[in-house]
Amino acid sequence: MFEKYIKAAGGEVKSSLVLKNATYLDVFTAKLRKGDIAIVGEKIVGVGEYSGETEIDCSNLIVLPGYIDGHVHIESSQLSPEEFASLIVPRGTTTIIADPHEITNVCGMAGCEYISKASESVPLDVKLQLPSCVPATPFETSGAILDGKDIEKNIKNDYIFGLGEFMNYPGVVYSDPYVIKKLEAAHAAGKIIDGHAPAIYGHELNAYLCGGISTDHECVTGEEIEEKISKGMYVHIRHGSSTQNLGNAKFMTDANSRRFILCTDDRHAADLKEKGHLDDALRRLVADGADPVRAVICATLNCAECYGLKWRGGIAPFYLADLVAVDDLKNFNAKYVIKSGKLVAKDGAPLFDTSKRYLPESVLNTVHIKELTADDFILKLKGKKAKAMTIEPGGVVTGCEIVEVESKNGDAVVAGTDILKLAVVERHKMTGNIGKALFKGYGFKGGALGITIAHDSHNIILLGDDNGSMAKAANRLKEIGGGMVIVDRENGEIHSLTLDIAGLMSSREADGLQRDSRALIERAHAMGVKREYEAFMSLAFLSLAVIPKLKITDAGLFDVEKFTFTDINA
Amino acid sequence: MFEKYIKAAGGEVKSSLVLKNATYLDVFTAKLRKGDIAIVGEKIVGVGEYSGETEIDCSNLIVLPGYIDGHVHIESSQLSPEEFASLIVPRGTTTIIADPHEITNVCGMAGCEYISKASESVPLDVKLQLPSCVPATPFETSGAILDGKDIEKNIKNDYIFGLGEFMNYPGVVYSDPYVIKKLEAAHAAGKIIDGHAPAIYGHELNAYLCGGISTDHECVTGEEIEEKISKGMYVHIRHGSSTQNLGNAKFMTDANSRRFILCTDDRHAADLKEKGHLDDALRRLVADGADPVRAVICATLNCAECYGLKWRGGIAPFYLADLVAVDDLKNFNAKYVIKSGKLVAKDGAPLFDTSKRYLPESVLNTVHIKELTADDFILKLKGKKAKAMTIEPGGVVTGCEIVEVESKNGDAVVAGTDILKLAVVERHKMTGNIGKALFKGYGFKGGALGITIAHDSHNIILLGDDNGSMAKAANRLKEIGGGMVIVDRENGEIHSLTLDIAGLMSSREADGLQRDSRALIERAHAMGVKREYEAFMSLAFLSLAVIPKLKITDAGLFDVEKFTFTDINA
Hints:
Two copies of one chain form a homodimer. By secondary structure, chain A is α/β, with parallel strands linked by helices. Chain A is built from 15 helices and 30 strands. The first copy, chain A, is 24% helix and 28% strand. In chain A, the strands form six sheets. In chain A, strands 1, 2, 3, 4, 5, 14, 15, 16 and 17 form a nine-stranded mixed sheet that branches. In chain A, a hairpin with a 7-residue loop joins strand 14 and strand 15.
């Protein structure tokens, strides 16, 4: 195998593919250089003067190493890995460190296996992090549990690259044996452990790092970044759809810049489609004044070094031929993308088959509930005063307000008020669990909304002012195998969007999905959901029982500040 | 295990050892910081404010990560690994990438195993590179052959860290299948391959790199360094006893400095003892104007990154507690050295037992020859004119001069002339091979000199003006199991120094060995060896059939320029 590389490198035989007359980024000395880039098989074999069986003229282009996304949840795009790849590869991303935290909370290891296998048909290297926190909290019913023993067993799998973001930092800092076992298992397997440690400093950070954790993508202040890097961490510059910390780049210095890497974490299909992926991060960084060469190094060599991806992230002999040819270092418009030596995208469009979908039974039909009826949504209150959840637009932090609610026949009556019923219906184990709450200020009227995305256990979250509509919404979600639904009580119509993969992602192509998704969202606004909310996705965080203040899970109403379940009666 | 780190890091329990009030180097941001360094077991658990069961006041000291030598042949010190460690650990070196090329050419894999096992008792991490070129050339008889299959088998061993410097660059560039097999085996095992590629550029360098080679310690010019780094290599800054390229440091820039690492390659015991190891390199670099912080980073973090030594080379939580506390960043005098959390040296003296020696039979008694007699050194010439080897002082390149030599009874007579007989006696396989040559201008008279160090196969190299003395010298070397010898024909005295380990190294302590070695060298000069030569070590390169011009091996006289054996008769 080496022989064919060596012979082509030496010029004895033609290379299979040569990018002619390129200006290319040498990430090792941070210089733009000129030359041909010769490729044989999946590797770059030389830079200099070469001729190839196929040649691509790159005279007016700048060739960069393919971008590496240091941390991403594919599920946040609501797209299959194949469709996700069809959006990001043409943008220049050739490797991602993917943490399938969401689908694994629904499907267990079958979720990891699915992401891994589905990625095989696309020209994108998906390095899979085993989700470390399944379930994310003990206060809800998830589709799976990965305890210390499960982690110990699965972390050794060849298709598992490392251990995903360790969100349970109190568990590390207080050395919970259940948590320690997971960390020790990953370390023993020689695999990297990603961190998630917002605003942790000093001794607490030292303790967290003694869990063998390498990275953090939650930093936002210069002080935090400085301390984390000084303690050996790699720090992500994040360009998610909602969560952003591109400003981290301004804390880079000559001495510390090698410890900065790029990631997107959570990025919606619309943003991927319209704005881009890491190319958009680079564009934004450069527009904000970052040195373009340094920014690209963060997205390539630094990320490769952080994750121990040898022979990747640079343009040099024996390096993996993952390359993107862009127009300039301002717009980063990708003209050509080469993955493992093959031209896979041109002018922003994929050249690979995007129609194939790997769809195993194990990730389909994941809504396991009995047929529900109106009576399942009866909410008995002791008196008129009750706690209601509220939410700020654009945020995931909820509030708690004491409200007055009338009851009739032993059921709270919310129709005609600014209050809605919320319900979290357990959908994994058929426990019959339904957590119930009140929700104020969302604006929706005349039926029910429902979604099977509800962080992090992804039970069904329902909202409505009519018990029958709520039951219908849940039953429709069961019928379609997950997704989003609206029930209009008045005309009896049910409108839904299917997210057939684990109730989180669609096996459809991005365009059609987005069109239908937008229509459904518009319908929700038409039924009163205030414009300042994301009609469905704002609901998806109401069950995340680690973020203040009042949350609802299938097990009941949860006071995050007191870290305990609480009574709805005020 | 993690629990005890975490609890101490959080301050919940005392650390086992704390370096109090230290100024320490944060290699990640290239800043000196102040704080206590807390250690538990073999790891640093925190920096900040800590108290420990044992505390060492470091108020006036600067604490650095323990140094990492990126490439060294322990054998060049003529010391056992234990004694070698006793000299370099107190200087601040805590990890070495060791290539046991010499002893493996004598003892085969038993040589590697010996270095590995002997290193176990000392507080020095010896990462062992499997020698890639055994034998170094096909023109001599070595003690062992490691062919592609042997490399394939042995590279997988846990105690083998990587593949040693690949000196046979023509073999790579011309894709010799025998060579490719070795490279592919190392790559398949996921192990790093060290390079050795003096003055290789352009397509030839590309081809060499397509062998999967990562490093080079032979660079000397700015142009060469720039090209090698731009093609993804790490470049060593070398501080050997004879081979030096500390000047490489002046080619470091903000952007490329991460690719520079330090090494010593070959360093004699006297230099280690009197001048030092990497501490001396740092001292010299700083004296020559290098930024001290950057220089230390080359000797620590950069080297750890190059060799994939995670959690090493920095002062941060979860990092290996390999530390050296120095007086300042000018003199680098090591006050304390901590290895894996234990204080192992103080004020330049080891605190560990240096008297233990692992001495397996497999590396002892390695001089396998039959008893030789004067007749074995008869040199028959066809006429009076013959080729004689010459050597420049301080160099390893030899010359060829046509000389006139009288013969008597079918044997060249050199006594009383400026010409000596040279002989290389095969000592591994009892082949009886004796290569013979003439050597002009060395100055020695009245007997014979001999040594069992002769690069790279380490046969016996003898020099003399009397056949009987040469036989006696060889026989004494057999008797003592290798070393150096002088035979004085006049008084019949034989003086020798034993190098019992493979005929290359001594199991004695450095002081006594050096004293006796100096006495023997003085005796050689007293018998006429010109002062400009290293009396014994200059001989050790006369058999290195890859360096011009005329060389002698056990298989005969070799013309390096014509790359073929040659007749002694002119």
